[in-house]
Structures are given as C-alpha cells and as structure tokens.
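I hope you will forgive my troubling you with a question about protein structure. I am sending you one protein, given as its amino acid sequence and as whole-number tokens for its backbone shapes. Thank you for your consideration; the sequence and its tokens are set out here:
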Amino acid sequence: MHQEYSVLDYEEKVVGGFYDVYGPSTNSALEGKLPSLADLETNVGNYGFEVVIVNRTIDPVLEELVQIAHCTALDCPASNVSVLVQKFAEFVTGHIGGPVKDATIMLARWIERSTELRTSLHTSLWPIGSINLGL
C-alpha cells in the first residue's frame, strides 16, 4: 500500500481479509490509529466507522463479480489489454452506480445506502460486494 496517500498501487493485489475504514473516530484512545479487524468485528458501531471488507468466503456478491470479470477476461484477446481494461472499468463503474453528476446527490444516496446496510446487516462492517454506490 502506498504509505503517503493510503492507496493501493496498480501492481498490488487485494487479498481476502483486506479492509478499509471510513469515518471520524470519536474515541480519543484510537486517535490516529486504525482499529484491528477483530476489534471492529466485536465492537461494531462503537468506533463511529464504516468498514468495507474484502472476503470472498462471506461475500457471495463479490464471488459473482469475480466470476463475471473472469469470463470477461476469457472473452477478450490477450493482445488487446486496453480493451480489457476498458471493459473492466465499465463493469466496475456500472456496479457502483455510474458516473457522478452531482456530488450532493451522490452523498445523499450514500447516506441512504449506508443506513440501509447498517440496518439490514446489523453492523457497520460491510462486504465489498454489498457496496453498489461509489463515493
């Protein structure tokens, strides 16, 4: 992970168990620290974070998305990487709601979706496949 910007490089592969945390912490003991996944799983909601986790074993939607991407890759000639990249970009963009036209509307949609997820899953720890809206 690129340390300066806290983002993944293109060459990096996201492994099962990777998680990303979003939200301000109101817990002064955690100020500047990322809670462990075990802490987040056992104290969900207590930290004021929304957590997205990559884990195929608990995320059937992610597994389905991976299978679709795999089939897309098989259908694309190996010599035409730029076409494959474009197809993947369109696939991901489509899954997360398409291009953003208005940031205010997008934020309102995200708040609505995060509330739906928190209510239906009874947690703030969400499988990445359940995220169908980009922010």
